[in-house]
Design brief:
Chain lengths: 442, 396
Amino acid sequence: MSRRALLGGGLLGGAALGAVAGGVAGYGAGRAAATPAPGTGAAATTYPFTGAHQAGIVTPAQDRLYLAAFDVTTTDRAELVALLQRWTTIAARLTQGLSAGPYGPASGPYDAPPDDTGEAADLPAAGLTITFGFGRSLFVGADAGTDRFGLAAHLPDALVELPHFPGDRLDPARSDGDLVVQACADDPQVAVHAIRNLSRAAFGAATIRWTQLGYGRTSSTSSAQATPRNLFGFKDGTANLKSEEESDVEAHVWVPASATTPATAWMTGGSYLVARRIRMTIETWDRTSLREQEAVVGRTKGEGAPLSGGTEFTEPDFAVTGREGRPLIPVDSHVFLAHPTQNAGVRMLRRGYNFTDGNDSLGRLDAGLFFLAFVTDPRTHYIPMQNRLSRDDGLMEYLQHTASGLYAVPPGLPDGSLVTGSDGTPVTTASSPFVGQDLFAG
Amino acid sequence: MSRTTVGALALAALVLPLAACVDNDAPEAGASAGALTVSSTADACEVSAATAPSGTLTFQVTNDGSDVTEFYLLGDDGLRVVSEVENIGPGITRDLVVQVRPGTYYTACKPGMVGDGIRSEFTVTDSGAQVGPTGDVAAQLADAEAQYVAYVKDQVGALIAGTQEFAAAYTAGDDDTARALYAATRVHWERVEPVAESFGDLDPLTDAREADLEEGQVWSGWHYLEKDLWPPAPADNGGVTYVPLTPEERASAAEDLVGWTQDLVDQVNDPDFTFEAFQIANGAKELLDEVATGKVTGEEEIWSHTDLWDFQANVDGARVAYEVLADVVEEEDPDLAAALTEQLAALDGLLAQYGSVDTGFVGYDTLTDQQVKELATGVDALSEPLSRLTAVVTGA
């Protein structure tokens, strides 16, 4: 038996399952009811794993992010499918506050490593969501000519190679990837635990290409959330698409059946994830006058009101002019250029996070915004807007895009489709469903 | 830009240094004495008090009306604008921070920004505090502006002469001469770059880097020629073999560069061209920002590695900008003047280890990480005090 099989469903085979089933159920219940550790402030929120769409998109944005992009190392399509099955089961378990495997961190065969790494053992689910996506290279390979897993015919037209945007300084080692996993939670340890266990389950089939930790969600995906601030000190995401705006979410986030062909129908109900690591030149910004800061953003720093007046949620009025007939909201401000009226009416659902990855060799903060957006089609909903922003946005003087990725995020697993073991928790079997299954069915 | 705009800029700029001692949430004893609130509506301009002690006053102006408004503090003749804050959108609050001597003043809100505004008399009593500049600051500033404009004209004059020489050598295929002239000529551009940037399209046409382009955009200017003079190996060029420009392409690119430079010459020699004190001060800060974001990381001259020339030129430009304003700064804020003088000298000293504009600099790619970090630290040490220059100059 391969190590991979052992880590995945292998332990579930045979008589062992029945023998420990009671203990597993007890563990699961115990952890879900656990009191949050002091200082985490994390509530014992759980979000359903199954549904028409994957969780972690319109789910109220959690405080923490750990995102990992993987390179698939196996060349065997069956092993790729097995990986996705293991991942799906583990994700379904972890998001419900269960351990990664049925034994948990402190049980199971005494001479085998535990099937859960254990650092989240006493923590609640903390609103964990895990979202999976596929990069273009999974379909066609880096040289664009290789059909690595027989999926090339199912490559959606929208899963393009992003163009070079003005001012990009991308690090290839931190960009792209065959698979992406977004783990969001209200407790960083829970998010890190999730990626660690998924990465463990991937050994032999896929390896981590790059990861990004994020904190302090910089946008709201629900109108029930207060607007957080980015590292420039400005409220971020005031005008973001919110989950409550159902018709706009339908129009701008999910891929409609009408946009797919029989070969790409597997993306119906899915979305596209744009990930951009945006380094901020913090030190220069901090030496900038409040006047310039507000002018390049287009909002007040204190309340976040548009410069045309009102309060935070007042719609910007680009027609209002002040002295010498100049618009109060400058035409090169971020608010002006990113507004739907300047972008053919398109909107994006953003889930950005602040990041601080230590410092660079010059002693400056390597910090900024890890931009995540879910859109129905990047060709209409991201690329034109980013071209405009990169070219004209006054804020670009203080920004540099250093990494980039685009991923097709398939729809969710139908409710009730998970295969469960005798303890009622999800298990991996040869017939377990997995995220993106329809892609491999064709 | 009008004088009134300058006044408002001054006030906005003053907010930062004052914020340290005037905390809105928890006013300290004494600090609150100068804090006033103003509510501007369609037909009223309510100031929380009609009198205040001399010194620094903060008017927290809230637009409670539905039109864009502005707020003025006028002299006793009702005409002289002591200070103003403009472009306040409905619902928005802005601070006007101003130093006021004892006397009689008028406050005025101007909803809709038309007419004489809604006025009230405002009395400033003598607190005994010394207020405002001594000496003839206005004359010093006017002098500084004239000096700086002269400097800009001088640099742009040298730039066009050097560019013509460079273009001739490059067009003739004399690459050695063109390479020798490249960095030395660009020094004159980099010294006055904020001025060039104020003329819109000229900067992207003449100084765009390849990485700053979007797909399909036509590249031109200095760095376009730089790449041709220092052609990269395929590994440094995205795996693609660099194709040298044809003689025709060379001639046309060189001609364009000279043409745009001539545009700059024409604009700065226009009799109406002025550069005001606050622009000089902001320009100095922008030059150092340029160094901090582009030069010190070696992104500006990725083919020729002549970044240190640009670096020195930006520092030169910042130093000249500071020096023409130095008299004012020394009077208004001697500590800042001392800090700037010291940090400029320190940075010049660091750069001098690697060469000079006259004798040439070592290639940026020969510097160790430690040396680059030392330079970056020097830039930060200078940038921080330099960012306070505008507030001091416009507050004078």
